[in-house]
Amino acid sequence: MSPLAGAPFLVVFSGWCAGISLSTRVSPPVASLAGVLFSAGFLLISTKRWPPGWERFLPVLFLTVAFPVYFMSYRLHPETVAEVFWKGQSRIGTERPWGSKRAVTLESPKGRLLCMLEPEDRPLEGEKIEVSGRVVPLESLFPDLSKGEFDPARYWRAKGVRAGFLCSSAVAVESPETRKTAWRTRLRKKLLLTLTPLLRGHLLAAWTGERDPEIAALHRRWGTAHLLAVSGFHVGILAAVLLWCLRRFRFKLLLCSTLLWGYVFLTGCASSACRAMTMIQLALLGPILAGRPPSGVNSVSVAGGLLLLINPWVFWDVGWRLSVISALILCSIGQGAGLSPLRGLAASLAIWMGTAGEAAAAFEAIPVSGLLLNPVALPAFSFLLPVASAAVIPALAGFPGGWAPLWGMEGVFGIWVRFADFVCSIFPWQIGFSPALWNISAAVLGGAIAYGLKTGLINGLLLTLCAFFCGAVFH
């Protein structure tokens, strides 16, 4: 089989990723050429049987790699930002904890700026403020930029940030009550004041994308921190619930799509959630437009590629990378026959190994307990989150007796905490980052894709081996 028949955009997407990964080290023409050569090599290695008419399709395919990589690489060479004084009005886009500070993005005439404030200066999302200070290069906000694998400047550029801002004064001039971000602020306040600790921490993450520090620390220790990041897991649960609830509704696909996109915007438009929602949208529209369900691997490639076209800096977003890797492995293993319990266990193991290098590079180390907890955590939280969301509605609405289901679900989450702590006590080890771990993760991804494309044993082993060595070049 050839990826040209089963997942043609995967060939394009692989070339885009290879070219972008080199774009900050080489010129755009060289990055473009590297992307084309990578796509050609991937196609040659993974093809067991060429489909009819492949020779006419190949030039178009390579042009589809070359030109986008060139223009995306050009965009990845950021403009030089001169340090200037600026005073004016701006709107607060997002705010989140960042070490001992709070990171705030400002929507201003100067573009999206990043400002680091003290915790006691916490602003409200959507608030309009009068600010004065200095616009500075983004890198100057992170003096320890060269330490470690995580690059905070790239991370914030993936969020659309253009430059940094050293704020000397800030005065509120308009409340956020009429802004869409006011919904997030009001919902977050309602959850914080109404719910019990464990329930509050998990639903705060699932509903608004905001992480409770204590709950986040627990999940980091267990190796299940991805459960708190709004991603394909949460979007997929909501999609399944909505499709079941609207199964008799005439315009269920339109309404379901609208509600899902509304959820993605409410939770802050994380790149992993946008990737998942784009993929789900393709799955919903596939039978209508093409007459058959789309290939999962091809849908992941299209969804990831669209986000790269919009903002190529998202390639260095850890959430986007982990989401794409997980989705590619899951769709590859479940290709055709779907996911049986045995395949699900194999997929969970492969996803943990395939994302280990990226996760260890971002978080310095990953707990071994996550390897054992995730096969249980994913189905458990697929049940717990929808049930908990329904259970808190009476309390949030102020109904008499609404506290009863609240404390019941708190007890259920408490059982999970004790179980996860028990597993961690038996397997307390952590795996630190090393280049070899990155190579092994790349090999697992290559092997899973080879399995999904049905390349055959020899081609599959060759693709896995090439992926192992490419892990050192294209990270």
Give an account of the 3D structure.
The protein is an alpha+beta fold and 475 residues long. The chain has three domains: 113 residues, no CATH class; 91 residues, Nucleic acid-binding proteins (OB fold (Dihydrolipoamide Acetyltransferase, E2P)); 221 residues, no CATH class. The protein has 19 helices and seven strands. It has a five-stranded mixed barrel. The chain has a two-stranded antiparallel sheet with strand order 6-7. Helix 3 packs antiparallel against helix 4, helix 9 runs antiparallel to helix 10 and helix 18 packs antiparallel against helix 19. The longest helix is centred in the C-terminal third of the chain and has 24 residues.
Main traits of this protein?
475 residues, five-stranded mixed beta barrel, two-stranded antiparallel ribbon, 19 helices, globular
